[in-house]
Write a structure and sequence with these properties.
The complex is a heterodimer of chains A (148) and B (412).
Chain A lengths: L2 H6 L2 H8 L12 E7 L4 E10 L2 E10 L2 H14 L4 H16 L22 H26 L1
Helix pairs in contact in A: 2-3, 3-5, 4-5
Chain B lengths: L3 H6 L7 E2 L2 E2 L1 E2 L10 H14 L9 H20 L8 E4 L2 H16 L5 E5 L8 H10 L2 E5 L9 H7 L4 E7 L11 H10 L3 E5 L11 H4 L3 E5 L10 E5 L1 H6 L10 E4 L4 E3 L13 H17 L1 H20 L4 E4 L10 E6 L4 H9 L3 E2 L1 E3 L4 H7 L4 E5 L6 H17 L7
Parallel strand pairs in B: 3-15, 5-6, 5-7, 7-8, 8-9
Antiparallel strand pairs in B: 1-2, 4-10, 9-10, 11-12, 13-14, 14-17, 16-17
The chains are: A alpha+beta (148), B alpha/beta (412).
Chain lengths: 148, 412
Amino acid sequence: MASALDDLYRDIILDHYRSPRNRGRLAQPDVATQGANPLCGDEIEVSLVIKDGRVADVRFNGKGCSISQASASMMTEGVKGKTIDEVKDLVASFKGMMHGDFEPDGDELGDLEALQGVRKYPVRIKCALLCWNTLAEGLELLEKSRAH
Amino acid sequence: MLDVQAIRKDFPILERRVNGRPLVYLDNAATSQKPRCVIEALVDYYERYNANIHRGIHALSEEATAAYEGVRAKVAAFIQAPQPESVVFTRNTTEGINLVARSWGGKHLGPGDEVVLTEAEHHSNLVPWQLIARETGARLRFIPILDDGTLDMEAAARLIGPKTRMVSVAQMSNVLGTINPVGRLAEMAHAVGALMLVDGAQSVPHIPVSVADLGCDFLAFSSHKMLGPTGVGVLYGRLDLLEDMDPYMGGGSMIRSVALEESSWGEVPHKFEAGTPNIADTIAFGAAVDYLQDLDMENVRAHERELVGYALETLGELDGMRIFGPLDPAIRGGVVSFYYDDIHPHDVGTVVDRDGVAIRAGHHCCQPLMRRLGVPATARASFYIYNTPEEVDVLVHALKKAKELFSGVGIG
């Protein structure tokens, strides 16, 4: 197998693809948002329960390629227990890493760093970002509804 | 038969390597590669006789006009149209269909009228009709496809009736590869006083197509899928229909006389070619038509029929392979869509690309058909005159690698 492929499909990515974490839909989410990539037909839903300003529970549902599914699975692990602001920071860091204007160092992104290899495949970046954009939209909705 | 090795030498891009491997270009249904003669025709025009057409009285303009109009005649002969004037140059197939939907549909469709399409249409033969139906109150009906990817012709016989004004169907599906009996559908349409539009985007580049034989009223197709440049399309229309239709766009070239308040239109086809057209690419498209004409479309079809037969056979031997569309090469063009071992088509596309193999992965602008097939997307290999059985083998080998990589994945 060519090394560039190994770089994209790292073991941890394949592991999340094979055994996705937090897959499904929360029965009573505080917010649930859908996202779609019209170019490839991938669809995703992210639902959140917020308690005391922290992500108490999170699920994702949908169909897509290994990158989109693994990214979503790892994202749910990454955001669980974090405060809204911490989640926002994580979203920004992950997007920054994908767009190449942020080099992750240390533990900030944890397992998510494995998705770095996607950067070499411009058409696949959208796959990795789909769940993150959907999550960000959920956070925005949440803030809007709380502002009123 | 085609001398494929000789043909390959005419395509400079085939010398390219991708990811260290020789390019195996199997995305011809998206766009074809271009032979040197087409590229040279572009350069020749820009270097020797670049000028605007239909207006200058200088030598260059006359040469450019003659070349541009010469392509119209070539294209008319290529599809056996009765006269060059029935050939309108557009940007692509999509624009041709939009032109008919708007200029013909806008004038002739009304509440209660029906336009009959199929479940398998490309968005370009669906969305223009949705737009005009919404404006005019006309209703869209859809011929279903059977599980083997062919049209349900019994349902077609029921759907095409007294309310039908237009039947618009692709001659070859860009996903299933099915060659649809559009000649028969044209007869059915005409029997109830309706018109027939054939979306020839996938068929005209690959099989002999004669509007005289098909008996269709409109035929739309694109240059870039048949060795020509992007940005040029053809709409063939029956002359009396084109003459009756209003212009699609207003501007220069398409008028007879213009006053501040009102204008009168020029003759067909210029009425539909407002503004300076894509002169260079149209002229180079003429070189592509010559190239195909020299090969003979019967030979092109025979080559692809053999290749698709081989692909169906070898891909079909892979465990976990699901191939969509008819398995009989006699009614199938050189397009093979598949879903392999529950590996998402995007992942398949990325893995085979590492071996230099270019295929398409996605919904192919056919979302309703994807829903009908029960998959979010498919991978698609599509062939042309320069492809070989050995290239199919390279694809098969790359697919086996994908399976190895994703073994144990089965979560849809």
